[in-house]
Amino acid sequence: MPYQPLILVIEDDERIRRFIVAGLSSQSYRVIEADRAESGLSLAGSHAPDVILLDLGLPDRDGVDLIRALRAWTQIPIIVVSARGHERSKVVALDAGADDYLTKPFGVAELLARVRVALRHVATKGSPLPESGEFRVGELVVNLVERTVLVGGEPVHLTRTEYRIMTILVRHAGKVVTHQHLLTEVWGPGRSAETQYVRVFMATLRRKLEPDPARPRYLLTEVGVGYRLLDE
Ligand code: CA
Hints:
- By secondary structure, the chain is an alpha/beta fold.
- The chain folds into 2 domains: 6-124, Rossmann fold, CATH 3.40.50.2300; 134-229, Arc Repressor Mutant, subunit A (Orthogonal Bundle).
- 40% of the residues lie in helices and 22% in strands.
- A hairpin with a 2-residue loop joins β8 (148-151) and β9.
- The structure holds calcium ion.
- Residues 12-13, 55, 57-58 line the site of calcium ion.
């Protein structure tokens, strides 16, 4: 029997928790549950789960505070579950060390896709790439070893900054990357207000890489949060 990953679900809303647990169990994941931050923290310590799904709105402790407490001793992927319209809290959670998020209400397919991405990043020690350094989705091929980008087999020339942005998205493929994360990695710290830089470069990248830049297939916008490179 193959190893069945263990998922910890920390969510106080029983209806949502049951929905999540049912979805995960349908894929043979093992699941443990907590309805409070403190019991969740102690289960994380005692069971060493492979992924944590964390509701940001818990009755006994702020979710972002819980992320910081977890990140003091573990790099277990944390997927935050939060309400629609709470973009700011999602960004704070991601910058505090969460890996990804789901916005309520979400479907089972989306839940399982996020969990698969998180597990893949764990299996490959934080990078979804094989040793060849090649990333593929649809017609797009990025090779971080050869430093090449192809669309439909044709080489595409990217500027240094465009290529730098692509390498960050590829290393986090399937996961959301915040505006702040891109700004800090590409332009250095202290550029917090200048998210329009990122928008301009993303528009150019879409013109170069997307079949229809107005309806991106690969470089997806996460409204109010950042960008996600599709990976499956
Ligand atoms: Ca809640």
